[in-house]
Amino acid sequence: MAVVGWIGLGNMGGFMSANLAKAGHDVRGFDLNEGAVAAAEAKGVKPAKSIEEAVQGADVVFTMLPKGEHAKAVYLGEDGVLAHAGTSTLLVDSSTIDIASAQELHDAAAAAGFRFVDAPVSGGVSGAEAGTLTFMVGGEDSAVRDATTYIGPMSANIIPTGGATTGQAAKICNNLMLFINLASTAEGAVLADRLGLDKQVFWDIASVSSGDSWALRTWYPVPGVVPTAASNNGFAPTFTAELANKDIGLAISAAEDTGTPLEIGRHVQQLFQKLIDAGESGKDCSMIIKVVDGSLDPSTRD
Ligand code: NAD
């Protein structure tokens, strides 16, 4: 049994930390949002009142935070992880963040005597709850190996990606593809409906045909087809439009840095932007179907 400090108990971190607790680890969780802490406590995570309380004496610290700025504040801030953890504590950032921030965290951790890996995940809230996430882990070999020993109860796949920040690089490219697939799924679903196809019949065909994707099977944006979809729930967030927009923005900025054309990705970013401009940034990203079908705002319909 290990002592685990966990910072960030939101949609993903709540379930992930609970799976470590279920596996018998002593998990101490902190979040700025008291509701998130209470929900994690109900799933077996011990509530901590500060980062300091969560990380003291921990064998490993996981962070699952929205963006690079949050991860930097949590690791590098005066009351942060580097200030309060012991240097034998292994640090694992599972947030999806920009490569420059991830490199900054690797450098600052190394300079303070810590081992740090970037270990973003794929699999959504349903994968977080089921303990079937894919982890992509970048960093120095022995740190990656040690991180793997803790990640097991949260994951179905653990894939070392290479040196520092390569986990984030893999995650950014994966999510570019995910959100393009989500947009194509929304377009296919709306067109199928307008051509008179039954929603279930069309999904049954696409899910065993060449239109298949993870987005189709997990996030189908039409209600009453896929149990894990936010569309069943008025688009209550599993992955907010704001975070989806952040991820596709990370891909666009990495593409600019590498001279890579990203025409489809840029177009999909505009769909998320329309959702955000309509005041729906906190809703699930699969709500872009409402941009496609024009029901969000009549001016969005071509
Ligand atoms: P979320 O917004 O639900 O959770 C983030 C949590 O971090 C919130 O509870 C927030 O209060 C907390 N937080 C922010 N700043 C903090 C601080 N300084 N100290 C303590 N807590 C702080 O987000 P999420 O959906 O759980 O996603 C987390 C990360 O995982 C993001 O980078 C996201 O892109 C990535 N991700 C999300 C999904 C998904 O399906 N939701 C899937 C894979 C990866």
Task: Please tell me about this protein's structure.
There is one protein chain. The protein is an alpha/beta fold and 302 residues long. The protein has two domains: 161 residues, NAD(P)-binding Rossmann-like Domain (Rossmann fold, 3-Layer(aba) Sandwich); 131 residues, Orthogonal Bundle (N-(1-d-carboxylethyl)-l-norvaline Dehydrogenase, domain 2), CATH 1.10.1040.10. It is built from 14 helices and nine strands. The chain has a six-stranded parallel β-sheet with strand order 3-2-1-4-5-6, with helices on both faces. A three-stranded mixed β-sheet has the order 7-8-9. The longest helix is centred in the middle third of the chain and has 29 residues. The N and C termini lie far apart (57 Å). The mean pLDDT is 97. Bound molecules: nicotinamide-adenine-dinucleotide. Nicotinamide-adenine-dinucleotide binds next to helix 4, strand 7, helix 7 and helix 12.
Shape annotation: globular
The value of Rg in angstroms is 20 Å
SSE ordering: EHEHEHEHHEHEEHEHEHHHHHH
User: What's the number of domains?
Assistant: 2
Sheet with most strands: 6 strands, parallel
Bound molecules: nicotinamide-adenine-dinucleotide
Helix content: 40-55%
The level-1 CATH class of the largest domain: Alpha Beta
Determine the CATH topology of the largest domain: Rossmann fold
Number of helices: 14
| Uncertain regions spanning at least 5 consecutive residues | none
